[in-house]
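[READ THE FOLD]
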Amino acid sequence: MEFTGQISKMVSSIGNPIEYVLPIGEKKLILNKYIGELIQIKFNDEIRCINCNNKIKKTYMQGYCYPCFISLPQTEDCVFKPHLCKAHLGEARDMDWAKKNCLVPTYVYLSLTSNLKVGVTRHSHIPSRWIDQGAHYAIRFAKTPNRYLAGLIESEISKYISDRTQWRKMILGEYDELNLIDKKNDLYEYLPNNLDKYYLNDENIVELKYPISNNLEKIKSFNIEKFKTINKKLIGIKGQYLMFDDNHVLNVRKYTGYNFTIKVF
């Protein structure tokens, strides 16, 4: 079976294990059923902006051309740094977009990926945000009415724990065993008085299991622009990474906007 077209990041849905679909062109490739099978991925030397569809030589912020990168609301500073959001003040590149994405219920969460980390996501991106990061466990920490306030809480908590994931350790499944509820209660003590009202007394821990048939012994990142074609056995998917039997991994999200031909056998 062969699929050709521009790819987007994998779409996931909760399951045991998580189910992954890769959008490619006008089709959707259900990846889980090909784990353990040979898969060929070829880069067709074409990259197009996922917004304007212009042909480009490189992407910015995973899929955009430079003009779109510096003008779209999806790439504004507050996407990476929520505490810089000004939508609550009526300031944004696109207020209509901000009303749907920034001025909505937003969660601060704790997740166990390669380490304990804190993050921010809007209500509609749970649990997909956790899955994209390769989290093993996650718990909601606080709920705010907008992105800015969630960003303030994240900034406070990141003084004590990381807001980053070590992607190699995440893929290998290396992380410290800890009690998320205890950590959540401990970190509550660091919330300033003006933010503690957003804290959630929710002890529900979400466990995420990924479709992996064999664990990797080490990690080798595959650069498909350099080598053009992958011919390898797919042995797992975690976060936005495809895992292959020779310890290579491919970051699908990195290649959003690229034109691929994928053959599954």
User: Anything to note?
Assistant: Residues 2-63+213-264 form one domain.
